[in-house]
Write a structure and sequence with these properties.
Elements: H1 7-18, H2 44-77, H3 84-110, H4 114-135, H5 145-175, E1 181-184, E2 187-190, H6 197-226, E3 249-251, E4 256-259, E5 262-266, H7 272-283, E6 289-291, H8 299-306, E7 313-317, E8 323-328
Antiparallel strand pairs: 1-2, 3-4, 4-5, 6-8, 7-8
Helix pairs in contact: 1-5, 2-3, 3-6, 4-5, 5-6
Length: 329
Amino acid sequence: MSNSFDPTHLVSEFLQAIGPNLDQIPPPFDLPERGRCPTIPLSFGLLGKLAQLSEVEEAVTNRFIARHEEIIQEFTSRGLSNSTARDATLRQLWLEEEQERSTTRERWYCGLSVEERYAFNRQCLTRSGPLFAQLIPEGIPSHQHGACARLALEVAELARRHRKRRSAIETSLYDRGLARRTVSSGDVKHVNDNKQPILSGALKRADDDKENAISRLIERWWREMSHDEPTTSKPMPPSEAPPPSEFPEWDDTERVLRFRGQECKRFKKTAPHQVKVLNAFQEEGWPNAISDPLPKGKLAKTIESLNMRLQHIKFSLNGAADGILWQPL
């Protein structure tokens, strides 16, 4: 695919074109239902894999819903329901859920055969309708139109989730009496009717999260395109080719942590808590975050030690301090 192609511009045009019809655009990974939207026949094998993905995503969604309720109850019981820490923790939870959903989908798509990926992309192109086909730039080979449609449908789905989240933030702040207030020198003060600093700030952060999520989605899409190389007429531009591995690798035998083919840290001394964290990540396939696998009270110090002399990636506590995140540097 030509390095002059800008998928960001394409999906932006698509979102602008569908406008108020956003809710009518079907999600790309839903099982096709007769009469619900345009569809093409899929093999029983691919339908089965879509069903498996649906079950995994439902479990992820339910887990994060439960965690959302736990966070609200926790801050309420501590008398901190109006604190900015509560909102920051919920924001972090949303980011974690988006990352886990994206990782799950990338693994699912890259695990398909070439034929299954092509059929799935054709399904996405059919679902996106004739409007999307008119937006695809000239010069993009026809066999890549389906991949572009897959990206557009997933961005539209993300936009719907963002709109729902934005509405929930606004409702929550008004219900708690915070929408028309601002924080100044540690005090919460009323502001005039024309300004809503807390509300506007929260919505601005949500909008930024959405744009960052779309950027990460496009980066993921480029990686997925590399798996479609047998069906593409041109290789991906070197500047956009995926790295050797997008996930760290922990070798418990050699006691070496690697990322993208580079050594991050080598353990020469015993470090049982750090090793337990790395083993937990390795066993779970390096999701964006895992629950605390250590005895109570050991996590923060272990992460601090794990980050010492660590290269290429870093670890951190999640917002509730009961789990571990990793991210590339």
